[in-house]
Amino acid sequence: MAEPPDFLSARDVGSFAYITMKDRTPQILTKVIDTLHRHKSEFFEKYGEVGMEAEKKAISLLSKLRNELQTDKPIIPLVDKWADTDIWNQYLEYQRSLLNDSDRKPSWFQSPWLFVECYMYRRIHEAIIQSPPLDDFDVFKESKDQNFLESQESVNVLCTYLQQLTIEDLDENQLKDEFFKLLQISLWGNKCDLSLSGGESSSQKTDLLNSLEDLKPFILVNDMQHLWSLLSKLRKTRKKTSIVRVDFVLDNSGFELITDFILADFLLSSRLATEIHFHGKMIPWFVSDTTLRDFNWVMEQVKHGNHEHQAKCGGDWEKYVQAGRWVYHDHVFWTLPYAYCAMFQVAPDLYAELQKACLIIFKGDLNYRKLAGDKKWEFTVPFHEALNGFHPAPLCSIRTLKAEIQVGLPPGLAEQLTASDPSWLTTGKYGIFQFDGPV
Ligand SMILES: O=P(O)(O)OC[C@H]1O[C@](O)(CO)[C@@H](O)[C@@H]1O
Ligand SMILES: [Mn+2]
After folding, report:
1. Closest listed ligand to the CA of 199
2. Lower Cβ count inside 10 Å, N or C end of the chain?
């Protein structure tokens, strides 16, 4: 058997991992510090002097973190006492044990990129929870909310589209077309995450629905048909009372979350699924990722939006939640640095939960990196192989490409893309629907 490939790492000078660690992450940390500064008077009003002291403490911890990163210092153990602190510190030990030389320590620019990038977000969380009473403050909340608010026009268009679809009148082919349309909306919704733009606003302003045809050439792997075959077969063959569960491993809040809600709503309304389970993050993560608070906030906003179709959607979604047809889950595993092939061992309860799904949709780039272990795979390696034994249920990655990792391409395509568009892997311009499961 050939050796598995090496991990992506900032050690590779000039790589996207390197540029992210050198430029983008310090920029994100600076923005976090600035956010805390800007909330100073709010903290004072709420907590008095204690709030001011806490703000100072958080800023000093974050400045120290930025300095450690920029000077490639060793990765140090976490000192907080949170649900996953011990697991993280064990993982740090494991990373250290991988370095044969006992004097060498894992560091920002030498260790696997997935590990250090996750560690940075976990250290931001540490800085905040060590600074009570600010321990509940989400440093990314403002930008997530802004992304949603700036996408209002597109949100209206999508809600209106969904409300005006008369699903019961559609024949099988029409239903498939609509399903494909909403899958593509959910794909391109992943284009505008905030960590890629260094936390700067990147909301959705164009009318996606009318751009889908133009965007089709940018879909490099298109397994939508497999998703349709799977769900439409279940729809035809299932008994009246049986459950068809689709899980979404969510990515970003704001506009992307709306596109996921629209797709999830369609799945229920069309009876392609009977239950949707959403998996979000327990702590603020990679700037724009969805937490329970974001999930609820976005739903509330839509419900109280001053647009008739938005309000109707929001009302429906709330009812789905109340009826247990939409269920939100979180788990510490999603904010650990492990590839998903480790889930069975590290978080068997989560693995068992995912096994209940008929289909799992993994949204976004970070999920893809974790599915494929963030390794330098050949572009033609089969997706099934890169998953390295992670097969809880049929699954599909819906992702725009924002990192130098992609598998399952036909021979020659990567070379062709590199020649015509050298940054094809990292700009979010290209997308995939990549399925693994029985076909
Ligand atoms: O929100 P997404 O689609 O997971 O993208 C987040 C992305 O941010 C980056 O880490 C860059 O910091 C990408 O490479 C990463 O995977
Ligand atoms: Mn994200």
Report:
1. 1
2. N
Do both 278 and 380 map to the same domain?
A: yes
Distance CA(160)–CA(181), nearest Å, equals: 15
| Same domain membership, residue 154 and residue 96 | no
Q: Which of 96, 129, 162 is the last residue in one of the domains?
A: 129
The single residue listed with the structure tokens 């909306």 is 185
| Other beta carbons less than 10 A from residue 315's beta carbon | 14
| Closest by Cα among 57, 29, 122 to 83 | 122
CATH number at residue 25: 1.20.930.60
The DSSP bridge partners found for residue 186 are: none
Ligand 1 centroid to residue 243 C-alpha, Å: 33
Q: Which residues contact 176 (CB under 8 A, 6 or more apart)?
A: 228, 232
Q: 308 and 382 share a domain?
A: yes
Which residue shows structure tokens 């929870």?
Answer: 129
Number of domains present in the structure of the chain: 2
Same domain, 110 and 166: no
Q: Is 59 in the pocket of ligand 1 (CB under 6 A)?
A: no
Judgement on whether residues 303 and 173 belong to the same structural domain of the protein: yes
Report whether 154 contacts 262 (CB < 8 A).
Answer: no
Q: What is the pLDDT of residues 369-424, one digit of tens each?
A: 999 999 999 999 999 999 999 999 999 999 999 999 999 999 999 999 999 999 99
Question: pTM for the full model?
Answer: 0.97
- Ligand 2 center–CA 176 separation, angstroms: 28
Would the pLDDT of 101 be above 80? no
Supply the range of the domain harboring residue 189: 143-436
Q: Is residue 125 part of a domain?
A: yes
Task: Please name which of 195, 183, 186 lies closest in space to residue 227, comparing C-alpha atoms.
Answer: 183
What is the distance between the alpha carbons of residues 305 and 303, in angstroms, rounded to a whole number?
A: 6
Residue 6 lies in a domain: no
Q: Is 374 left (phi over 0), alpha (psi -120 to 50) or beta?
A: left
**How many residues are given for the chain?**
439
The answer to whether residues 109 and 153 belong to one domain is no
What pLDDT, in 10s, does the model give residues 36-73? 999 999 999 999 999 999 999 999 999 999 999 999 99
Ligand nearest the Cα of residue 27 is 1
Same structural domain, 156 and 217: yes
